[in-house]
Amino acid sequence: MRTTRSTIRTRLRLAGAFATVLMAAGVVTGPAAQAGEERHVKQPTLAELAQRHGRYFGSATDNPELTDRPYTEILGREFDQITPGNGMKWYATEPEQGVFDFSKGDEIVNFARAHHQKVRGHTLVWHSQLPDWLTGREWTASELRAVLKKHIQTEVRHYRGKVFAWDVVNEAFNEDGTYRETIFYRTLGPGYIADSLRWAHEADPRVKLYLNDYNIEAVGPKSDAYHRLAKELRAQGVPLHGIGMQAHLALQYGYPDTLEDNLRRFSRLGLDTALTEVDIRMELPADEAKLATQAEWYRDVTEACLAVRRCVGVTIWDYTDKYSWIPAFFEGEGAALPWDEELRRKPAYYAIREALIRR
Ligand code: XIL
């Protein structure tokens, strides 16, 4: 075949287009491509890739880390949603009864605004990380109701228009699906959940209100309890808009195979769902095989959310092993996040990209 100028042009154009596709898909390797990738080719971020599906891809962060420039550079660029890891919790926001301090949460909201990221409010009602003034004495039901209502409404009002969703009640159930015996449950009974949702809604009628918990990714007694409660609350007209599945997974306990079905059954109740605190820990030391399995799990979790229309997005519980909560809370475990302690991307990062590109 004769090769004319125009066929050469066409071939070059096609080759160029093909290369662009490969680059965008992150499959171009080799020294030239890698150098090009670093110097010239702007790879789409996880946020940009998620947005193509109408989803967000987020990370938790915490105030002390915001002085780490290489860290904040990636945090600001790669994600379009932020959750404060601690800054909006009760101990931080109402350290003395009736004295509110929103400086920590505000700092994170300001970071998010500067980087066009939406913020998930976390969390209003939880048995953990409560201030001493609250846990250190007995309360009558009517006293505690007033304290709870004031806390919720002051915080929700403060962040009105600044957060798109609230984890209103966090970790309300035990593994067997019975109510957790918290200060709120013991003093107020199960109705504290509906009341909290109503008070939050009154303070910001536009914000999405969630119940959030761990070990509810698979279908089982604990997620059944949420399904039952959510159905009841919706039937009673209580303002509940979504269920947050934390997804603190661990390689040694197996992958929650029913995640997608589980997300779907909450969608059918007319609820949004979100994967709110994803990390996938392993027994240390990490090795290539564990990191490969972890990558597969990150891919599967991301794909599960993309497969279910009302799953609105994925948040990882910080993005780097440098700031993961796991080593401090689970002895001998760690390496749970898609970036390592030196802020280098791990196989998990590439697996998330692949899921976001392919689906
Ligand atoms: C963790 C934070 O990441 C830690 O910094 C803190 O010391 C303890 O809490 N489920 C939740 C989160 O809902 O609020 C927890 O965050 C992790 C488990």
Number of domains in the coordinates?
Answer: 1
Number of helices: 15
Low-pLDDT stretches are 1-38
The outline comes out as globular
* CATH fourth-tier homologous superfamily: Glycosidases
Which cofactor or ligand species appear? (3S,4R)-3-hydroxy-2-oxopiperidin-4-yl beta-D-xylopyranoside
Strand order of the largest sheet: 1-2-3-4-5-6-8-9
CATH topology: TIM Barrel
Q: For this structure, what is the CATH class?
A: Alpha Beta
* Main beta sheet: 8 strands, parallel, barrel
Order of helices and strands: HHHEHEHHEHHEHHEHEEHEHEHEH
The beta-strand count equals 10
Overall structural class, as computed from helix and strand content, comes to: alpha/beta
Q: Kindly, what is the distance between the CA atoms of the first and last residues, rounded to a whole number of angstroms?
A: 39 Å
Radius of gyration: 22 Å
Strand portion:
15-25%
Characterize the structure shown.
The chain is 45% helix and 16% strand. The chain is an alpha/beta fold. The chain has one domain (55-358): Glycosidases (TIM Barrel, Alpha-Beta Barrel), CATH 3.20.20. Strands 1-2-3-4-5-6-8-9 form an eight-stranded parallel barrel, surrounded by five helices. Strand 1, helix 4 (69-78) and strand 2 form a beta-alpha-beta unit. Helix 13 (288-307) packs parallel to helix 15 (347-358). Residues 85-86, 170, 246, 277, 325 line the site of (3S,4R)-3-hydroxy-2-oxopiperidin-4-yl beta-D-xylopyranoside (XIL).
Task: List strands and helices in order, with pairings.
Layout: H1 5-24, H2 31-39, H3 46-51, E1 56-61, H4 69-78, E2 81-84, H5 90-93, H6 103-114, E3 118-125, H7 132-135, H8 141-158, E4 165-170, H9 183-188, H10 192-203, E5 208-213, H11 221-235, E6 242-245, E7 248-250, H12 259-267, E8 272-283, H13 288-307, E9 311-316, H14 326-329, E10 333-334, H15 347-358
Parallel strand pairs: 1-2, 1-9, 2-3, 3-4, 4-5, 5-6, 6-8, 7-8, 8-9
Antiparallel strand pairs: 8-10
Helix pairs in contact: 8-10, 13-15
